[in-house]
TrEMBL record:
<protein>
    <submittedName>
        <fullName>Transcription antitermination factor NusB</fullName>
    </submittedName>
</protein>
<comment type="similarity">
    <text>Belongs to the class I-like SAM-binding methyltransferase superfamily. RsmB/NOP family.</text>
</comment>
<dbReference type="InterPro" id="IPR049560">
    <property type="entry name" value="MeTrfase_RsmB-F_NOP2_cat"/>
</dbReference>
<keyword id="KW-0808">Transferase</keyword>
<keyword id="KW-0949">S-adenosyl-L-methionine</keyword>
<dbReference type="Pfam" id="PF01029">
    <property type="entry name" value="NusB"/>
</dbReference>
<feature type="binding site">
    <location>
        <position position="311"/>
    </location>
    <ligand>
        <name>S-adenosyl-L-methionine</name>
    </ligand>
</feature>
<feature type="binding site">
    <location>
        <position position="328"/>
    </location>
    <ligand>
        <name>S-adenosyl-L-methionine</name>
    </ligand>
</feature>
<dbReference type="InterPro" id="IPR029063">
    <property type="entry name" value="SAM-dependent_MTases_sf"/>
</dbReference>
<feature type="active site" description="Nucleophile">
    <location>
        <position position="381"/>
    </location>
</feature>
<dbReference type="InterPro" id="IPR001678">
    <property type="entry name" value="MeTrfase_RsmB-F_NOP2_dom"/>
</dbReference>
<dbReference type="InterPro" id="IPR035926">
    <property type="entry name" value="NusB-like_sf"/>
</dbReference>
<dbReference type="InterPro" id="IPR023267">
    <property type="entry name" value="RCMT"/>
</dbReference>
<keyword id="KW-0489">Methyltransferase</keyword>
<dbReference type="InterPro" id="IPR006027">
    <property type="entry name" value="NusB_RsmB_TIM44"/>
</dbReference>
<feature type="binding site">
    <location>
        <position position="285"/>
    </location>
    <ligand>
        <name>S-adenosyl-L-methionine</name>
    </ligand>
</feature>
<keyword id="KW-0694">RNA-binding</keyword>
């Protein structure tokens, strides 16, 4: 019998969180992707599922701070602590310092987890360490181990530097880093022509006319979501699709392209908007398994011309084929740290070199595929200047057939969102309650 199915002394919710941390560490898994399967495997729903979700995601968000605290409580370097034990200690820290879990319960359940998954000796070690952690609250610990943004807000130093540069200084840095550590609210989108916002539970989003924010619960319980007529989508991503559909084009407006469509959320909204305009969308995605996810997202939707597994830098379409193209490019994801907490620990400064080169090739390819008078909307879920103004500037300097236009006019209700280049837009978690999406509108001249 697999170990996960054996009778165990460990609490199931804490065991799920422990297995999430292991999957992230060993398999480079994403928390939001691995968690649902583990919840189903252990039969967790309702409050237990919510507890496991916050425990896993919150622990990963605050890992840097907790490691500094643990280092002050352990008489040897953390690298010499067994990885499974360190995972459990981090989970214990989150319960003690950031969740309303009684001290005795936080310590005893973590010790039980270590005893069950490692050894009795390791359990004794965990008990001693967590009793030291419990002697102070989080504020007191941060004052002791370091008040610098890296430690206080649990962000790698290079990420703090990039976000500071994108903000233009320190004035809002603390607010942004704090927002990155807040669990994101679940946002739904009604796909026009297939559902309406009125049939979705929750409060209307501030900027998107199609979104609602759920107060809690399982979004899959909403009939429109279960039937694929609506979906889960951050409001910032909704605004990207809305802007791509709203930009004026000269002449015929029949063929739209989503060049980097996986996993399909923006493509589903874009296809619905295309259908309302009498246009059709081609959804293109390089990775075959992600193209399958796009097909699933577009199942039953109107306005779909096809889903193609193709490399966006060498797409199999004739030049000038499309009237409008969305390039939601692969990026560092540092604008979505609320919902992808592991990205802050997984990304490295060297990633920017490879990613920005890819982003430039994708935008260049998109402009080649766009007819004169058509538009390309470039978007990234990152505020990092190399991935935003750096890419747009490099593309414009390299070609004479593209001009930058004002994307803000397409989203007039969104204020305080000026991007790093005139006419571009930058959304922020601490200002707008969205992921930090960047938008730039390019017209093929």
């Amino acid at each position: 019998m697999p170990r996960s199915q054996r009778r165990t002394g460990a609490d199931p919710a804490r065991l799920v969180a422990f297995e999430v941390l292991k999957a992230v560490r060993v398999e480079d898994a994403y928390t939001n992707l691995v968690l649902p399967a583990l919840l189903r495997r252990h039969g967790l729903t309702g409050r237990d599922a919510g507890f496991a979700t916050e425990l896993a995601s919150g622990t990963i968000r605050w890992q840097g701070t907790y490691d500094a605290i643990l280092a002050a409580c352990i008489d040897r370097p953390l690298r010499k602590v067994e990885s499974k034990v360190l995972d459990a200690l981090r989970l214990g820290c989150h319960q003690l310092l950031a969740m309303r879990v009684p001290t005795h319960a936080a310590i005893s359940t973590t010790v039980d987890l270590v005893r069950d998954r490692v050894s009795a000796g390791a359990a004794g070690f965990a008990n001693a360490v967590l009793r030291k952690v419990a002697q102070q609250d989080l504020e007191a610990w941060v004052a002791q181990v370091g008040t610098d943004p890296t430690t206080a807000y649990s962000h790698p130093g290079w990420v703090v530097d990039e976000l500071r540069a994108a903000l233009g200084g320190d004035a809002e840095l603390g607010a942004l880093l704090a927002a990155d550590n807040e669990p994101p609210k679940v946002t739904l989108v009604a796909r026009p022509g297939r559902s309406t916002r009125d049939e979705l539970p929750g409060e209307p989003t501030a900027f998107s006319p199609y979104g609602v924010v759920l107060p809690g619960g399982d979004p899959g319980q909403a009939p429109a979501v279960a039937e694929g007529r609506a979906g889960v989508q951050d409001e910032g991503s909704q605004l990207v699709a809305i802007a791509a559909a709203a930009a004026p084009v000269e002449g015929l407006d029949a063929r739209w392209l989503d060049l980097c469509a996986g996993p399909g959320g923006k493509a589903a909204l874009l296809a619905a908007l295309a259908a309302e305009c009498g246009a059709g969308l081609v959804a293109s995605e390089r990775q075959v398994h992600r193209a399958q996810l796009v097909r699933r997202s577009l199942r039953g939707a109107g306005g779909v011309l096809g889903v193609v597994a193709a490399d966006g830098t060498a797409a199999p379409y004739r030049p000038g084929t499309f009237d409008r193209v969305l390039v939601d490019a692969p990026c560092t994801g540092l604008g979505a740290l609320r919902r992808r907490p592991e990205a802050r620990w997984r990304r490295r400064p060297a990633d920017l070199v490879e990613l920005t080169a890819l982003q430039r090739r994708l935008v260049d390819g998109a402009l080649d595929l766009t007819r004169p008078g058509g538009i390309v909307l470039y978007a990234t879920c990152s505020p990092v200047l190399a991935e935003t103004s750096g890419v747009v500037t490099a593309v414009l300097e390299g070609r004479a057939d593209a001009v930058l236009e004002d994307v803000g006019q397409l989203l007039p209700d969104v204020s305080d969102a000026a991007g790093p280049l005139p006419g571009t837009m930058q959304l922020w978690p601490h200002r707008h309650g969205t992921d930090a999406m960047f938008l730039a509108l390019l017209r093929k001249s």
